[in-house]
Each structure stands twice: as structure tokens, then as C-alpha cells.
Write a structure and sequence with these properties.
The chain has 111 residues and is mainly alpha-helical. It has one helix and no strands. The protein is rod-shaped, with a radius of gyration of 47 Å.
Length: 111
């Protein structure tokens, strides 16, 4: 009986130790789950930040494209203005030649 009692006490101590180890394992698991949840939140925050940065980059690229189109349009308008100016200068030169011819004719008629 005494030996059986000693075995029961030893078994109870082993059971108590196993329960303590299980409780420690459960606490470690819970801590790990909390850490994993925090890591997941951090990862989600990073993904959101990256998506926002990507969106800003896309908007900036769209702005650059629009600005380039505006610049191209302005350059085309400038080229058209220069062509108009050149045509006007040619017309003015022809008008000047006509005026000079009229003056010569009037001078010849006066003489």
C-alpha cells in the first residue's frame, strides 16, 4: 500500500508538472498569436502605405503626361504663330515692293 501510495504521489507530481508545462505552452502559443496578429497588422499597414504610394506615383505620372501634352500643344501653337509671322513678313515685303513700284511710277509720271 505504501508503495502504491508513493506511486500515486509520484504520478500526481508528474501530472502536475505536465499540466504546468501545458499551461506554459498555451501561454507561449497565446503570446505567439498576439505577436502574429501584430505582425499581420504591420504587414497590412505596409501594404496600405505601398498602395497609397503607388497611387500617388500613378497620379504623378498622369500629371506628367498631361503636362507633356500641354507642352506639345503649346509648341505646335508657337510653330503655327512663327509660320504666320513668316507669311506676314513675306506679304509685307511684297507690299513694300508694290509701294516702291507705285512711288517709281508716280515719280516717272511727275517727270
Amino acid at each position: 500500500c505504501d508503495l502504491a501510495q508513493e506511486d500515486r504521489v509520484a504520478s500526481q507530481k508528474d501530472l502536475d508538472s505536465a499540466q504546468e508545462a501545458l499551461a506554459a505552452t498555451i501561454m507561449d502559443r497565446d503570446s505567439t498569436q498576439v505577436a502574429l496578429a501584430a505582425t499581420q497588422e504591420d504587414r497590412d499597414s505596409v501594404h496600405k502605405a505601398l498602395a497609397a504610394m503607388s497611387n500617388k506615383c500613378d497620379l504623378a505620372q498622369e500629371d506628367r503626361v498631361a503636362s507633356q501634352k500641354d507642352l506639345d500643344s503649346a509648341q505646335e501653337a508657337l510653330a503655327a504663330t512663327i509660320m504666320d509671322r513668316d507669311s506676314t513678313q513675306v506679304a509685307l515685303a511684297a507690299t513694300q515692293e508694290d509701294r516702291d513700284s507705285v512711288h517709281k511710277a508716280l515719280a516717272a509720271m511727275s517727270n
